[in-house]
Amino acid sequence: MPPNSHRGLSRRDSLILGATGFLGLTLTDLIRAEAASNVTSSVKAIINIHLDGGPPQHETIDPKPDAPVEIRGEFKPIATNVAGLQLSELMPQISKIADRFAFIRSLVGSTGAHDAFQCQSGYPEADLRSVGGRPAMGCVVSKLLGSPNDAVPAFADVMQGRPLVRNSARPGFLGPAFAPFRPDISKLFARELEDGMKGELASRGDNHTIRLTLANGLTLGRLNDRMELLAGFDNTRREIDSSGTMDALDQFNRQAVNILTSGKLAAALDLDKESVKVHARYTPPTGSGERFITSEDGTAAKKLLLARRLVEAGVRCVSVSFSDFDTHSHNFPRMRNLMPIVDHAIHALITDLEERGMLGDVMVLAWGEFGRSPRVNKEGGRDHWPDVGQALLAGGGIKGGQVIGKTDRLGAKAISRPVTHQDVFATLYKSLGIASARTTLLDPTGRPQHIIDRGEPIRELL
Predict the structure, then answer these.
(1) Is residue 139 within 8 Å of residue 178, measured between CB atoms?
(2) What is the pLDDT of residue 147?
(3) Quick check: is 351 in a domain?
(4) Are 390 and 61 in contact (CB under 8 A)?
(5) For residue 206, what pLDDT is reported?
(6) What CA–CA distance (Å, rounded) separates 384 from 344?
(7) Which domain holds residue 163?
(8) I need a surface site. Which of 36, 232, 347, 378 has the fewest CB within 10 A?
């Protein structure tokens, strides 16, 4: 068995992703309510990596070696395989393949919120709150590109920490039928929550994640029997339903059963199916520094192996997180521990996708909710800094080996080519074949809402 792996997710009769309200299951609520027409689709997929807590730009892609010590910090820049481009010494693996990446150093417009919602949607959390709020990108993709015949869901949310607790990948005004598939991966990857977050998560109830065990000993045979019985009830109800609602619900149920019985999703979640060699690829060397209580260990790198497997199975959007970049204290020893794990994981994912011939069809994005303060505080930490942040993109046909935007000598403000969250999402939608400037969704009042209302695709990437 590969190291650090877990049994129990591969058996067909041990997986329940929900089917119908009659069965007390939940996946039906996640099935697309309709298939959109006139949308030009592609084979591409998105892996959206959230660096939970807000990564420090100085210790990652925008080092400032000529700034005063209280600004530049402890780490030195290193050369990359792109002439003239330097990254932090904490990123030696990404530095080797920097020509595959675009490094955005001038991300602006953060609301400063400590969740992942803006990095999931492009919008502030409060936008359109009166009609349910904006939907996350994956939920939009579920509506536009999903189908009742899909054997896997269009959107899988495997984030942990703040993004999970605060329901960052939510469907907003699209409603629960377009919510993400959200398995509980806590037995695979530990992420200790702060006490306050434990209370927040508990208040969301049992349905915030999806159980991966059959309820009360239910088997697939019994499930089929119950589905036949339910179909009989539904036929009777359909005869007296003139609105078409029952036909729509029947589509939801069919896809729920398709997902449950196809085996594709269960297989994707089973990391035991990968070889020892692949597991080794996604296992970083033992690091140094200080591991904070809410930070993950090296096994977290395999979250990106899980993401690759989900995309291979046909999932269109996968959201992943790494914690914990909220370094108000002990920034440097904590980054010495955490950043090499993320560096190794992203390098493993990009090279793995490339060797499998998938990199051109999968766009990978890594970013956090904001940057961190240029000046180191009295606790040796960096505080929240919404003025400027960062993002890394690779794959999906983008032009790599470039830096977009520039900050001042302290890394405090963008002084050229500011990029917004909506610009990033317009680029992601374009990679999926969705024209964000022309695509609208009806909110509950019947009013059309553009999926992106201000941003434009980043021209340098295309």
Answers:
(1) yes
(2) 78
(3) yes
(4) yes
(5) 78
(6) 25
(7) 41-214+263-461
(8) 378
pLDDT in tens, 64-83: 999 999 999 999 999 999 99
CATH number of 176's domain: 3.40.720
The reported pLDDT for the residue numbered 269 is 87
Regions of the chain with pLDDT less than 50: 1-43, 212-220, 222-223, 226-227, 229, 233, 236-249
Strand partners, 267: none
Helix (H, G, I), strand (E, B) or coil at 313: helix
Query: Would you give the DSSP letter of residue 329?
Result: B
3-state secondary structure 58-80: CCCCCCCCCCCHHHHCCCCEEEC
DSSP states of 83-136: TT-EEETT-HHHHHTGGGEEEEEEEE-----SSSSHHHHSS-TTTTGGGT-PPP
Residue 82 maps to a domain: yes
Contact yes or no for 87/343 (Cβ under 8 A): no
| Amino acid present at 188 | L
Is 452 part of any domain? yes
C-alpha to C-alpha distance for 125 and 141, rounded to whole angstroms: 19
Task: Report the distance separating Cα 150 and Cα 264, nearest Å.
Answer: 10
Contact predicate 426/457, CB 8 Å: yes
* 358 is a domain residue: yes
Within 10 Å of residue 373's Cβ, how many Cβ atoms? 22
The structure tokens listed for 299 are 């096994």
Amino acid at 82: V
Q: Which pLDDT score, from 0 to 100, does residue 257 have?
A: 63
Q: For the chain, how many structural domains are there in total?
A: 1
- Specify whether the CB–CB gap between 349 and 304 falls below 8 A: yes
**Nearest by Cα to 321 from 115, 176, 172, 124:** 115
Angular region, 25: left φ>0, alpha ψ -120 to 50, beta rest = beta
Report how far Cα 393 is from the mean position of its chain's Cα atoms. 13
Return the residue matching tokens 């993004």: 163
Please tell me the distance from the alpha carbon of residue 301 to that of residue 306, in angstroms, as a whole number.
Answer: 9
User: How wide is the angle at C-alpha 329 spanned by C-alphas 327 and 332, nearest 5°?
Assistant: 70
